[in-house]
Amino acid sequence: MRTMEQSKGMEQAVYPGSFDPITNGHVDIILRGAQLFPRILVAVLENPKKATLFTTDERVAFIRDIFKDRPQIEVEAFHGLLADFVRSRRARIIIRGLRAVSDFEYEMQMAQMNQQLNPDLETLFMMPSARYTFLSSSLVKEVFALGGSVRGLVPETIERRLREKFKAQSESSST
Ligand code: COA
Question: Which residue has a Cα nearest atom 48 of ligand 1?
């Protein structure tokens, strides 16, 4: 029989990632996940070994701002093992987006490793809307840095943040 806490865990799903920055592909998965679960916890990876454009605090703040009118969607930073973080939040479900066959192998490895680390975990794969299957955070950064438009690919607030970040970077490199 499930304990109350375990049953409570069923009510929320964790959506982990680097979100450097969050794109409309991620937003799509979060919103669709929110139709399946009463609560979605967006878990932002803090990885000191990975150089990111935006700091962990920035990435968390941007996502909180995007979903500020949806109390059902929470955002938290995490470090260390995802399996431990999910357990510490008394959750059982991890949501991941599968954009293309190329995602499959890596995702399968992660899901199986997470299950090995915490057998209570289930990874639920969702397909992003077809219009976002080509999208990734790196591509967004690259296109933006080279002067291309990312309109419609990221929330407006992220477009603004990208502009500010690249402006600050070019100012500091020219001094
Ligand atoms: N729409 C658009 N882009 C998407 C997407 C979607 N629905 N889903 C994933 N992506 C993109 C991301 O933008 C990212 O692009 P980038 O590589 O160009 O930056 C790429 O796919 C993968 O990113 P993400 O989904 O953020 O995964 P990740 O590989 O950065 O992080 C974690 C995956 C955080 C889940 C994983 O690293 C982890 O669990 N780390 C904690 C340590 C741990 O537990 N390790 C053992 C794992 S078994």
Answer: 110
**Residues 4-134, CATH architecture:** 3-Layer(aba) Sandwich (3.40)
50 is catalytic: yes
- Written as tens digits, the pLDDT of the chain (175 aa) is 455 545 555 689 999 999 999 999 999 999 999 999 999 999 999 998 889 999 999 999 999 999 999 999 999 999 999 999 999 999 999 999 999 888 999 999 999 999 999 999 999 999 989 999 999 999 999 999 999 999 999 999 999 999 999 888 878 877 6
Enumerate residues lining ligand 1, CB below 6 A.
16-18, 20, 23, 25-26, 29, 45, 81-82, 97, 99, 110, 113-114, 128, 132, 135-138
3-state secondary structure of 164: helix
Residue 51's alpha-carbon distances to 4, 20, 46, 62, in angstroms, are 40, 10, 10, 18
Amino acid 173: pLDDT = 75
Q: Which atom of ligand 1 is nearest to the CA of 28?
A: 7
For the chain, the domains span 4-134
CB atoms within 10 A of CB 95: 23
**Rounded to the nearest whole angstrom, what is the distance from the C-alpha of residue 167 to the centroid of ligand 1?**
26
Say which residue the tokens 């431990």 belong to: 84
Catalytic residue among 96, 99, 141, 161: 99
